[in-house]
Amino acid sequence: MRSSSSIGLKIAAGMGLLFLHFPLLIILLYAFTSEDKTYKFPPPGLTLKWFAIAASRNDIWEALFLSVKVAAAATLIALVLGTMVAAALYRSSFFGKDSITLLLILPIALPGILTGLALLTSITRAGLDPGFLTIVVGHATFCIVVVFNNVVARLRRMSYSQIEASMDLGADALQTFRYVVLPNIATALLAGGMLAFALSFDEVIVTTFTAGKEETLPIWFLSELFRPRDRPVTNVVAIFVIAVTLLPILLSQRLTQSFEEMHGGGK
Amino acid sequence: MSPAASKAILRKLSDSLFLRPRLALLLLLLPPLLWLGVIYLGSLLNLLLYSFYSIDDFTGQVKYQFTLDTFRALLSSPANLDIVARTVLMAVAVTVACGVIAFPMAYFMAFYARGNTKAFWYLAVLLPLWSSYLVRVYAWRLILAQEGIISWFFNQLHLGWLLNAILAVPVLGGPSLSSSYFGMFLVFVYIWLPYMILPIQAALERVPKSLIQASADLGARPAQTFRTVILPLAMPGVVAGSIFTFSLTLGDYIIPGVVGAPGYFIGQMVYVQQGNAGNIPLAAAFSVVPIVIIGLYLAFARRAGAFDAL
Amino acid sequence: MQNAVELKNVSCVFGTVHAVDHISLEVLAGEFFSLLGPSGSGKTTCLRLIAGFERPSSGSIVLLGKDAASLPPYAREVNTVFQDYALFPHMSVLDNVAYALMVRGIGRLERHRRALELLEMVKLRGMEKRRPAELSGGQRQRVALARALVNKPRILLLDEPLGALDLKLREEMQIELKSLQRQLGITFVYVTHDQSEALSMSDRVAVFNRGRIEQLDSPKKLYEYPETEFVARFVGSANVLAGKELGLDGGKFAIRPERIRIEPGRISGTNSLVGRLIDVHFLGSQTRYEVTLVNNSTIRMTVVAPAGGEAGLEAGSEVTLTWNPGSLRKLREGEA
User: Fold this and answer.
1) Domain count across chain C
2) Least crowded by CB within 10 Å, which of A267, B99, C209, C311?
3) What domains lie within chain A, and their CATH numbers?
């Protein structure tokens, strides 16, 4: 009974998995197509020349550098703020704790368009010029929860008596943080930081509202989506973006050896 | 300052924080709470305020005065109501389809996959979730194109007439898959599918295996066990997943722009109103619509008892 | 001689729970002092108050003559061996032991030399490069001990240090700990819920119940002269009887099972009661008898006698219990 019903189930589940991954393979294939005017399948021929052409494009490099700068800055802020909340929340219980957790999740739970427009209204009202800083602020806001999730899970696994032992042996709060807490959460910080980086590097919806005239790599990509000009170059950038976002995720999974910590890290 | 002196000051600070744990907690929480509370919540509040402002028809400037005119304008225009209805219908269809595809996958992951297989599946579901949203949308542009792989596939099987028949369906069809509601629906389902799989899988994972055994021992057929034991326990996961797929579809503005028929969706309307039209109050009012709809959906789910098994 | 630890009227309240309720005690220098009680009785909180992990809601804590109530743990001259050992998993055994010296800024060579001395003392030479995860439970326990002693504290606090070890290892470690304490001549404050452990190792024992000290005495006195029903039952086992059951005045009395003689049949006499034997448990060197008395109300009594005298004593038979009046202990009224 069990095995016969599981064959149908296996097929259904396998088809679902294929559905999830097939488009990623298509992207890979199209980066090498020799056709440059249409999305013709199958590709008439395969070539590597688009990689060289993409690499010689200054607008792409500039967009890439901006994205890396934004992601680095947003990740740094998220690491500091996320670790602080995790340290404050993981052991204490007080009135309003649940509201704080909710507040952390809200920026990734609400549709990005809400967060984006909300930030834009504030930027307009405060009379600020949208640009690098406003992009970073927006990204850091939804990256905090990713770091928080990683660090809080690690802190909960660490026995609190380690901290007590350190203080008992003569270490003050700062020394205890440096010699005991930090080594314990180091890989969680690294994992959370990489996830935050990937999240920021790829973000487009909030960014369209907060970027002003600046162009991050996803925004460059978005303009290509709406008005395709250089299809082959877009294809090359596509697999590059996939690689840049996937590597940190695979690495952080290695580091935490646990999927729960990554949970709740959707976009 | 000498290192010894600064060390002594740090030690003093450590002492006083240790003796006042509440103060230490407050100091830890203050910066992140200021950030999220002032920048983020403040912005959301500001957004809400803007939806109660209006735009001066002559100058095009925002009038900072409380009014319901913007909402009235939104709700009184049949075109706007069309947009809301179109978006909600799409969101419902996408949610149902995601549920149907996700359930067997989640079920398989929770009850059949073990050890390395399970880790593989988990990663396989997480990877698309984390890999670039834009690129994945773009991939469908390639797949659905007139000269793309789906057309090719149908033609290879000499089923080109079938594809044409699908595209000939009024409203849902169109000149090509990439400019039809059917194509848009496919992309939405693809993009949000992992958000449905993971919560269902998490809910099923919590179903004790002994419970299923107990049900079988009591003489329940597998179908009965499924309906009376597994489904009610999986319900909170299904609802959590459907909130994701539903709300994400309601708020998206990129997919309807890249793939699909003409005719605005809520997200696009928000984007256009704040951008080219420069009407932030109307954009804000439109962005409140998904929140209200999601709120209604949550209330409905609660009344239907979807959270009872929690 | 100066006291090692003095608690005066110390209370510690968590929310509405009085974890420690107006406790006063003095631990003498060089003493092996145990805090004994069931879980939730306040013994661990009491230890944590001395270590500085909790702060008293009221009362004073004096360590080695210095007021310590508002000192953080790192400023107190006490060290602790934790129940879960709390070893730092990211450090080698050597770095774990040398930790206290490292945070005090002592140079690498010197602190490694002293850490190795300590490892020698706890018989772990050769293990210094390992990580805690690579050690057995007993070895981790020794590392925790060495780490807590490296700073030469004058008071060592031990929170159920043997709780995670199996019985045989436990008994070995009890002997070792006791001899270590004698050799070092420092004060041990030892928390345990195991009464036999407390009795065999300690100079004095404070018996905790519901946040209060029921009795503070030497092990022998605790056993021979329990003052309350709780102590009588928790330290060893005891039969507790109302005075009127024995034809005595009011109040309650305790008598140890091994102080009662059991004989088959009905024998009249003073200081004796007749009952029915309901169960016989052969324990090797001893035999335990469960007897119900049908006097005024039904009372169960436990009797322990050397093995070999079971003739005529079968479940269901009538028996007579006899005792020396000097074995009865009148108990102080209190909560059980």
Assistant:
1) 2
2) C311
3) 59-262 (1.10.3720.10)
